[in-house]
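Researcher: I'm comparing several assemblies side by side, and this is the next one on my list. It has 870 residues spread over two chains. Same procedure as the others: predict the full complex and return the structure.
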Amino acid sequence: MDSSSYFAQANEVELFEAAAAMKLPILIKGPTGCGKTRFIEFMGQKLGRKVHTVVCHDDLSAADLIGRHLIREEGTYWQDGPLTKAVREGGICYLDEVIEARKDTTVVLHSLADYRRVLPIDRTGELIEAHPDFMLVVSYNPGYQNVLKGMKPSTKQRFIALSFDYPNAEIECQIIMKEGDVNETVAQKLVTIAHEIRRLKESDIQEAVSTRLLIYAAKLISQGFNPYDACVHSIVESLSDEEDVLEVLRTLIKLHFLDENN
Amino acid sequence: MEEQIGKVWDRFLKKKINKSYDDKRVFFTDKRKALNIFYHLLGGEKGKELQIADKRSIKTTRSVLERVSGSGTTFFLAWQDDKGVYLPASLAYFDNEKLNEMHYFWLVALAAKMPANAPNFAQKNLQIAHELIQTYPGFESFYQSAITYLIKERLRLSIKDPEQQRHELAFINSLVDRELINVSTYTLNNIYPFPLWLYPAQTSQQASNSFDDDAELENSPQKSEKTEELKMKKRSSQMDDEKKSDGLLIFLPDSLMSIMEQVNLDRSEDDSFDEDALYNAEDLEEITLGKKRANLSARIKMDLDFAEGAAEEYPLGKGHFINEWDYKKQDYLENYVCIKPIIDINIKPIALPKRLQKMVKKIASELDLMQLDRIKNNKLPYGDEINLDTWIEYLGHQDKSLHPQKFYESVERKCRDLATLILADVSLSTEAGITQEIRIIDMIKDGLMVFSESLNRLQDQFALYTFSSLKNTNVRFQIIKNFKEGYSDLIRGRIENIKPGYYTRLGAAIRESSKILDKQQTANKLLLIISDGKPNDVDRYDGRYGIEDTKKAIEEAKRLGITPFCVTIDLEAKDYLAYLFGRNGYVVIRDSKKLPKVLPEIYMNLTL
C-alpha cells in the first residue's frame, strides 16, 4: 500500500491545509478503520512534513511524550520524546487514540495547542518555541465507553475538529477497487454488505465493519478465495463473538453470494 | 358417543386439509433474536418489534374440504403496522426445515424493505420480492421452490366466481413470470392469502362503534390511535372463531396469548376505562390483568400506611412539568409530565442490617486493595524521573554489575472526578417474588444499601433517587440521598423504607436525573439506572411510545455529557436495552439475588 493515494470524503484536505498554513492544531474523531491514519500520512506527504506518530495507551505518561533523563556512564542526559522532537524539528506530531492516555498527560499539549505554541519542559527548565512547520494532530474513536475516559473539554476546545466516518458508498467502492484489486461488482457488493452491517452498530455489535476490513475481504477475493469465505473470515468473525449474531451475519453473506458459491 | 365420532371426524378432516409439515416446523421463538438482527441488518426501524401474529379472518374461496370441515376462514398472516412486525408463531409450509427457516427470513426482509402503510400491497409485495431476489441472489432458490410449491397447492382451491378466477389466474401468472400485477385494486379478500406476502395492518370497516375520547390526557389521541382500538375489537371477534376451526395453513401451538387478549378486551368494554386502556391491551406481554388489580390493592395499602403515620411521604412542592417525546408527532409534548419530588419523613435511622454486614466488609476490603491516592513507584528500570537517592546509592556501589540499574521512579495519580446518580425503578413489578420470602424490591434495597456503603468508602460523590409513575400527571421522584447529604444512618433508614410504587415512566425520570447531574461540577457524570423491566405506564406510555421517549431522554443526557448505564434484572431486556443504551450501556443480571454483590463490581468496572 502506498500512502500517496487518498480519496477525500469531503473538504478535509482543504481544511487540513488551511489549518497547517495557519498553524492550528487538528482533532480527528471517527470509528476504527475509516482512514484517519491514512489521511494523516497522506497529508504529511502532501505538505512535505515528517509524521511523528505516538500511539497512546493508558500507561502513557507526560515523560513519554516530552522526554526524560536517561543515564549513561558519565551521568544523566536528556532524551527528547517524540513530541519535543517534532516541536524542535518541525513536522506533524500525531497522537493516535489520544483519550487512551491519562487525562493529566494530555494537559502538556495545552500550551502547544493555542496561540503560544511553546512547550515548557520543567525538568530542564527549557521553553521550546515550536518550529514553524510543527503541527499537532490528535485522533480518537468516540465509540468506546468508559466514564473516566474521554477528553477534557479544555483540551478538546483547542482544536480544529474533523469528524470522520466511513466514506460514502461511491468513494468506499473506489477505495476497495484500488486497494483490494477487485472489480466494481464485487466492490459494490462488499459496500452493500458493509452498509447493512453498519445498521447494527450500537445495538447488536460494538463496532461496525470498517473500510479496512472491506479491503481485507477484497484482497482475499482477488487472491482466489470464494467470496463467502472471504467475507466470513475478514468481516463477520471479527465483529462479534456471539454465535447467534454470527449466524445471522453468515446468513446475510450467504444470501448475497450464493450464486457464486453453489 | 356421537360427540366422540364427531371429534374423530373433525380431526380426520383437519388432517386432510392441514397441508403443513409438522416435523419440519420452525418456531418463531427459536429464531426471534436472529430475525431481529436480520431485520435491523436490512434496514428495519430499530424501534419496531418483531412479534407473534394473531389469526386474521379473511373471506375468501375455500376448498370443498375446507368448507366441510369449517376451516379456511382464518389465517396466520405476516403483517406490519407502524408499531411492529407480526409474524406467524411457526411456519411449516415446506418439507424442508431450511426452507421454512428461510421463509421467516424472507418475511422479515419484506418487512424491512416495505413501508408500513403502503397502498396497493399486492403490487408492492411483488415489486419488493423482485428487488430482494436481485439484491440477494441467495433468496432466488428459496423463492423459486416456494412459489412452485405454493402455486401447486393453490390449484387445489375450488374457485367458483369467474371474477375471482380471473384474479387468481392473473396472480399466478404474475408469480410465474415475475411481473407486476397490473390490476391495482386488489383488496385482502380478492386473493387467497399467500404466505410469502407481507400484509398491511388490519383496519376496520365497521367504524361505527368507536370509542369516545374523553380527553383526560392533555393531548387527545390521534386518529390513527382510534383505528388501533378498533383493530383490537376486531381481533376480539376473531377469537370466537377460534373454537370453530384451525387455520388452513398453520396453527398456533400456544394459544395462551389469544386467551389473555380476550380477557383484556372484556375489561375494556365494561367502560370503567378511558382510551388508555387500549394501550395496555395492545401490549399484553407487559401489562396483564393481574397487574392492574394488584395496583388497586397497592393503592389501598398506601392509604393505610398514611393512616398509621409512622413513616410518611412528604411532597416537596407541588411538582414541576417537563417535556416528553412523542415519536408519532416527532416532537416534544411541552410540559407534559408532572414530576413530583417526595421525601420520606419520620424515618427511623438504622445501622447497617446484620444480613449485609459480611458482604459490605468483604467488598470494603476489596476496595481498600485498590489504592486510589497518588502512588509513587520507586526502583524502576525506567520511569518518569530519576530518584536521586537511589541514583547516588547506585553510584556508591563498587561493583556495579551486581546491582541492577533501577533508580527511576514514576508517579501514578488516580483521582476520581466523578459524580454518580443512582436511579432505581421501584415500580409495582418489583413487588414480584424471587422466592417465597424475597421480593425483587428487597434485592434492590439491599443492592442500594451495599452499593452506598461502597461508594461512601471510595469517597465518590453520589446521589440516590427512586421513581415510579401513575400517568403523566404523577411521576413520583423520591429522594433517598441527594449529592449534598452525607451518607448516614438516616439514609439507610430511607433505603429500608422504599416501597414499590406504580409504573415505570423511565424517560421522565431520566430527564429529571439528568437535570440534577448536570448541576454537578465534576468532569464525569454517571447515571446508573437500576430497573426490572421495560418503560411503561397506564396511559399510552408503553411499547414503542415509551421506548422512543426513553431513547430521547438518554440522548439528551448524553448531550449533557452524562454517561447513562442501565443495570437490569429483566432477562428479556436485551433487544430494547441495546437500542436504548447502546451495546456497552447496560448489563443484565440473570440472578437478581446477586444484585447487591454485583452492583459495586459493575461500578468499579465502569469507572476504573
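Model: For your comparison table: The radius of gyration of chain B is 31 Å.
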